[in-house]
Design a protein that fits this description.
This protein has twelve helices and 21 strands. The protein has about 525 residues and is α/β, with parallel strands linked by helices. Strands 1, 2, 3, 4, 5, 6, 7, 12 and 13 form a nine-stranded mixed beta sheet that branches. β8 (about 240) and β9 (about 245) form a beta hairpin. The radius of gyration is 28 Å and the shape is elongated.
Length: about 525
């Protein structure tokens, strides 16, 4: 049975709750800086959307929702999380690797197949304890509420006084989790929500059942909510602020439902107050097969987002109430990263690239890594990272043709780090001779081939280098003081509007001064 609470209790409840939320928000939110691209990460493998290692997610995804923590069978509130593709220790390491790159990793609760519901205090306590254990072990930065089905129901006639026990205990549980996190870790627990449209904007049409069921939760937790990412797919038509209904998969659906979240709307349960634009992410499927319905093509998404951001003209019938749109919109969300990565559904990482085109004024950086021989042999399986102050800002691993794509890069100065699985080789007596001839000013080396001759890392090329090269190809020494590989490009200065497409970055093994090596990747 739904929890019945006397009306005169709720003003005190929400006043105390507001004070608690203010306390919890003292610390900086556990959210990425700037625009957010949130992607759901499958905790399983399927043939149509194969597993992608967590730390190999596209660089644009700066908020990753691991899906899902779910109720233990036989309960709706005792939560567990079991990594499918890793053992817990290895998955914890994966999370730490992603976090070290400046990204945030949340655990998503529930999902479409697993309703979560608490109807009494004991169940709420079990929910809090089991989620706390998951947060503590894996070190997640926050929680994402993806409650669907019968998890929440709209009850009563006032969205500010939730009469549904599921909503009541969820509010209390989240507040308790946030207070606990703040006390233990001295920082805010990140909080996002990903409801279906009926649970939020559907409240404009009716308030009852699932229609508008999230609204009491949003009203109560709005001060702690970092990102609202309504699923603008798998949905029927939905009402807008102009009294019209719009269908999923259209520009109007994206623009109208997003503005409703920002401006707020009237329901039969009272006025839903809007959220700040920075709290809104537009949630869309990554590719046609990622959702049952509601996929929106990239051209339409781009046009709708530009209009919503105030950067482009109106693209459909819906006219924004606010002139100039909402330039501070928080970002975008997609289901899911594996769907975005697969070539069987669309162009790999089409959604990530779309996000970068929409939000970034920075140029794309991509090209090829080649060996510095006459054939310019592609260097595959070579990891490339752009770093600032020892922090990685972008990374990619070259394909069999040596191609890399570092995405859209914020202007600035970056160091370039390389790591390759290609074996050292190509050094012989001719290289030693050419090094000696350079030192004797008989035939000079230049560029990367001159650098390759400095195998003892002295900063100059001399007879010692020639002798050291001879000793290594004779197997008298196992390595060079300078290492095995050198790279022509070690820094990148990115400026607004610059062209950083089709770059060619060459590598060479130390000692191969004539570039005779034809490498093969492992």
């Amino acid at each position: 049975m739904p929890l019945t609470v006397k009306a005169n209790f709720w003003p005190i409840y929400f006043f105390v709750g507001h004070l608690l939320l203010c306390y919890v928000n003292i610390s900086k939110a556990q959210m990425p800086a700037g625009r957010i691209l949130a992607g759901y990460y499958h905790n399983w493998n399927t043939a149509s959307a194969p597993h992608v290692p967590l730390d190999q997610s596209h660089n644009a995804y700066n908020l990753i929702h691991v899906a899902f923590a779910t109720p233990i069978p036989g309960t709706l509130y005792k939560m567990e999380f079991n990594p499918v593709m890793y053992n817990p220790t290895n998955f914890k390491t994966q999370i730490q690797t992603v976090q070290a790159a400046g990204k945030k990793v949340f655990i998503s609760l529930g999902g479409g197949l697993h309703p979560v519901r608490m109807v009494n205090l004991a169940q709420k306590d079990t929910f809090v304890n089991t989620i706390s254990a998951i947060l503590d072990y894996y070190g997640f930065d926050g929680i994402d509420i993806d409650f669907e089905g019968t998890s929440l129901l709209a009850a009563g006639n006032n969205i500010n006084q939730p009469a549904d026990s599921g909503a009541h205990y969820l509010i209390r549980a989240i507040r308790q989790l946030m207070e606990r996190h703040r006390n233990i870790y001295q920082r805010k627990l990140g909080l996002t929500m990903a409801p279906e449209t009926a649970f939020v904007q559907g409240g404009m049409a009716a308030y009852g059942g699932i229609w508008g069921a999230y609204l009491p939760v949003i009203q109560a937790l709005r001060d702690s909510l970092d990102l609202m990412q309504v699923q603008l797919y798998n949905s029927g038509t939905m009402p807008a602020l102009n009294g019209q209904n719009y269908a999923a998969g259209t520009a109007d659906f994206i623009v109208a439902l997003s503005e409703a979240l920002i401006r707020g709307f009237q329901t039969s349960g009272g006025l839903f107050l809007g959220l700040r634009p920075q709290q809104i992410a537009v949630g869309l499927p990554a590719c046609p097969m990622a959702a049952g319905s509601g996929y929106t093509d990239t051209t339409t998404v781009g046009a709708a987002m530009r209009y919503l951001l105030g950067r482009g003209p109106r693209t459909g019938q819906y006219i924004l109430i606010q002139n100039g749109g909402y330039p501070q919109l928080g970002g975008m969300m997609t289901w899911s990263i594996p769907w975005d990565a697969t070539a069987s559904c669309a162009v790999p990482y089409e959604f990530a690239h779309q996000f970068q085109r929409i939000f970034s004024l920075s140029p794309p950086v991509f090209g090829r890594t080649l060996y510095a021989n006459s054939a310019l042999t592609p260097l595959s399986n070579t990891s490339i990272r752009l770093v600032q102050q020892n922090l990685a800002f972008a990374s990619d691993t070259t394909d069999f043709m040596g191609n890399f794509d570092l995405g859209y890069i914020t202007p600035g100065s970056y160091g370039i780090e390389y790591r390759t699985s290609v074996l050292w080789g190509g050094v012989n007596a001719t290289d030693a001779l050419l090094t000696a001839r350079h030192f004797s000013n008989i035939s000079l080396l230049n560029g990367i081939h001159l650098q390759a001759a400095d195998v003892n890392a002295s900063g100059t090329v001399n007879a010692t280098d020639a002798l050291t090269i001879s000793r290594r190809f004779s197997n008298l020494i196992p390595n060079f003081p300078a290492g095995d590989w050198l790279w022509e490009n070690r820094t990148l200065l990115v400026g607004p509007g610059g062209n950083y497409q089709n770059l060619v970055w060459r590598g060479l093994t130390f000692g191969d001064v004539n570039g005779s090596y034809i490498p093969n990747a492992l």
